[in-house]
Amino acid sequence: MTVQRAPLDEAAMALRTGERAVTDYVAELYERIDAFDDDVRAWVDAEAAALAERSPDPSHRPPLYGVPVGVKDVFHVDGMPTRAGSDLPPAELVGQQAAVVTSLRAAGALVLGKTMTTEFAYFEPGPTRNPHDLAHTPGGSSSGSAAAVAAGMCPLAIGTQTYGSIVRPATFCGIVGFKPSYGRIPFDGIIPLAPSVDHVGLFTQDVPGMELAASVCVDDWDPSTVDEHDRPVVGVPAGEYLDQASKRGLDRFEEHVATLERAGFEVRRTVAFDDIRTVNDRHDDLVAAEAALAHHEWFDAHADRYADSTADLIRDGRAVSIETLADARRECVRLRASVVDTMTEHGIDVWVAPGAPGPAPAGIDTTGDPVMNLPWTQAGVPAIAIPADDVDGLPVGVQCIAAFGADERLLAWATPIANVLRGVA
């Protein structure tokens, strides 16, 4: 096991106050990367920079001063090539620095390096392994970001989610993964897969660190909307959606729900999705069609350099009709309204569901099934993965989902839920 404790909020405080020197901290992380990345394989490359001359006064340092960040290799970063886990020439993939990277750097963060991704953030796996058990996948497509944070190689990393690529790898790696409401972190400067459902997300080891990261990265973050004494009513999305989890995953999830009930949370069960198969199929059509559009010129020029699974996606997408694509885009908004209507009708503040069908599968030839994350991604509502416990040494956890735009409240509610599941409260 190569996991190590590395909370973002503690590191950020020590760096801002000068208790810890940025150069010393970065050097320690490089030593850890050197020691363990031959096994975990989370990184593409790395950089370091000195901030002391720019912010000599600890009382005026920005919130992420000196915090090293891992950046999924579909984000453009000034001074670093973008390969997107592919064999395409990097010169083909150039672009302006991602808006979220600019925000992080403005807040004092250092880009420690690029983290591994599946090819173009789809399903073709990279070499990254799960730090809890190197014989298992860390999940995808943000595999390197999740593994790096879990292994203590950096306290913060960024990734993307089009199916389940924030919440699922966070769940598999036993960390916190937050996918905000659609569009609340800008997607500018990132190689797209399917723009109608592409989200930028964040990885940390705990919820307090995630709240700090979100305050920097999420547009118009407003913690004043949160009532610290508010305890949410928890909804469990029963029916065909929940039946998609494995028996081991579902059994452990029911234990997690029972733990919340014993702690005093009111739990209400109701069907969230009338026809989950239609939702899943529509998502596949939407992603394929938009991937075909996004990769049109690259694929025409370099089809032989694409992995079979990605090439098949693009070819399938070219066969999707304009009418089918337009309807799928409209249905994203309709599904969002349906989720919120169900919450309102049943008095639900936050949904709780398995973060993945079960523990991380063995091997690295698959990244696991995103089926538990897919409908929430399609609806564009905020979701956060919360670690709970483990099954045979592999992490399992829950995801919490709130109404569109309720990102601040979701993170506030995540703290007591995480504490209960971890036995802290």
What topology emerges from the helices and strands here?
Layout: H1 8-17, H2 22-40, E1 43-46, E2 68-72, H3 99-106, E3 110-115, H4 143-150, E4 156-161, H5 167-173, E5 176-179, E6 199-204, H6 207-217, E7 234-238, H7 247-262, E8 267-271, H8 276-294, H9 296-302, H10 308-318, H11 322-346, E9 350-354, H12 374-379, E10 383-391, E11 394-401, H13 407-421
Parallel strand pairs: 2-3, 2-4, 7-8, 7-9
Antiparallel strand pairs: 1-3, 4-6, 5-6, 5-10, 9-11, 10-11
Verbal overview:
- There is one protein chain.
- With 425 residues, the protein is an alpha/beta fold.
- The protein folds into three domains: 8-225, Amidase signature (AS) enzymes; 234-274 and 325-362 and 390-421, no CATH class; 278-324, no CATH class.
- It has 13 helices and eleven strands.
- It has helices spanning 8-17, 22-40, 99-106, 143-150, 167-173, 207-217, 247-262, 276-294, 296-302, 308-318, 322-346, 374-379, 407-421; strands spanning 43-46, 68-72, 110-115, 156-161, 176-179, 199-204, 234-238, 267-271, 350-354, 383-391, 394-401.
- An eleven-stranded mixed beta sheet has the order 1-3-2-4-6-5-10-11-9-7-8, with helices on both faces.
- It is globular, with a radius of gyration of 20 Å.
